[in-house]
């Protein structure tokens, strides 16, 4: 990594003014300085990812993020390295890394720097990020790809799906969400299973014909949208339900909106069709 000419200049993040967090216990991670960044820290990334977090004692969020990363590093037992830059004592390093906000995270993989964090994240969210980092590093021949542990309810749901038992799979995902309400994969799994349940045994051609003949029948339009999503026709499904959101109100509008959001969750959030439909939904509601 080549450092810019102004490597020795200080970075000014003096806008940080929140109450200082408790840092009486040692902070985790390898401390990065102007002396060891290129001679020691970056070379380590040739054997395992080096996750570098820029933080400040003046920022509660950055301290919490650093401690969360320390917990994850300890749990992962040496599969990656946590490095830290205290922007108050290592301003030249922060300047070199072009830090504009904290917490700010960069991962070094094989000497290449990749920004990965520009806002506080929960420990659960950070775990997902670290898993992606380890996967990316493994794809480049550095370290092993992580094996994500599964939940017992998830194993039960997947086994049930292999047997075509959608009801059992649905019940398993619901139990998992009762225990872990914010589990993203459980939410996605439940939405997928419920879509399978709603479309099981349906004559797709007949539903589409019924939808044309009965444009005001909400139940038929919802079924048709399900069938379209199952068939990969996202845009027609979204447009179908958006039209209903515009003309309906009260509980009927709420039901259609919730189904639309559920169908959004089944697609890639970066898909232009999803982005366009989300914007249209926001305009329709507000």
Describe the protein in words:
The N terminus is likely disordered. The radius of gyration is 24 Å and the shape is elongated. The chain has a 5-stranded mixed sheet with strand order 1-3-2-4-5, sandwiched between helices. With 286 residues, it is an alpha/beta fold.
List keywords for this structure.
12 helices, 286 residues, Serine Threonine Protein Phosphatase 5, Tetratricopeptide repeat, Glutaredoxin, elongated, 3 domains
Short summary:
By secondary structure, the protein is an alpha/beta fold. It has helices at 37-44, 60-76, 91-96, 123-139, 152-162, 166-179, 184-199, 204-213, 218-230, 234-247, 250-265, 272-285, and strands spanning 30-31, 50-55, 81-86, 104-109, 112-117. The model is unreliable at 1-20 (pLDDT under 50).
For this structure, the quaternary state is: single chain
The SSE string, one letter per element, is EHEHEHEEHHHHHHHHH
Structural class: alpha/beta
Per CATH, the architecture of the largest domain is 3-Layer(aba) Sandwich
The description of the largest β-sheet is:
5 strands, mixed
Number of helices: 12
Helix content: 40-55%
What is the strand content? Answer: 5-15%
- The CATH topology of the largest domain is given as Glutaredoxin
Number of domains: 3
Q: What is the CATH level 1 assignment of the largest domain?
A: Alpha Beta
Distance between the termini: 47 Å
CATH superfamily of the largest domain: Glutaredoxin
Strands in their spatial order, largest beta sheet: 1-3-2-4-5
Radius of gyration: 24 Å
> Could you tell me the number of beta strands?
5
Which ranges are low-confidence, i.e. pLDDT below 50, for 5 or more consecutive residues? 1-20
């Amino acid at each position: 990594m080549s450092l810019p000419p102004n490597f020795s200049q200080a970075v000014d993040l003096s806008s940080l003014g929140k109450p200082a967090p408790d840092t009486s216990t040692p902070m985790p991670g390898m401390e990065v300085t102007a002396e060891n960044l290129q001679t020691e820290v970056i070379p380590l990334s040739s054997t395992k990812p080096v996750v570098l977090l820029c933080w400040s004692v003046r920022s509660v969020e950055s301290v919490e993020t650093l401690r969360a990363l320390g917990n994850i590093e300890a749990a992962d037992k040496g599969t990656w390295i946590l490095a830290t830059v205290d922007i108050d004592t290592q301003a030249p390093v922060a300047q070199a890394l072009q830090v504009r906000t904290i917490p700010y995270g960069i991962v070094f993989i094989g000497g290449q720097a990749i920004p990965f964090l520009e806002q506080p994240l929960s420990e659960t969210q950070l775990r997902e990020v670290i898993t992606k980092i380890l996967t990316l590093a493994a794809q480049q021949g550095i370290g092993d790809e992580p094996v994500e542990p599964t939940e017992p309810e998830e194993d039960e749901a997947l086994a049930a799906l292999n047997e075509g038992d959608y009801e059992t799979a649905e019940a398993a995902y619901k139990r998992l969400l009762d225990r872990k309400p914010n589990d993203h994969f459980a939410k996605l799994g439940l939405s997928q299973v419920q879509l399978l349940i709603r479309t099981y045994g349906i004559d797709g051609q007949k539903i589409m014909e019924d939808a044309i003949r009965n444009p005001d029948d909400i139940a038929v339009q919802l079924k048709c949208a399900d069938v379209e999503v199952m068939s990969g026709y996202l845009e027609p499904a979204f447009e179908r339900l958006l039209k209903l959101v515009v003309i309906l109100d009260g509980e009927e509008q709420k039901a259609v909106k919730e189904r639309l959001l559920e169908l959004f969750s089944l697609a890639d959030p970066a898909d232009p069709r999803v982005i366009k439909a989300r914007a249209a939904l926001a305009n329709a509601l507000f």
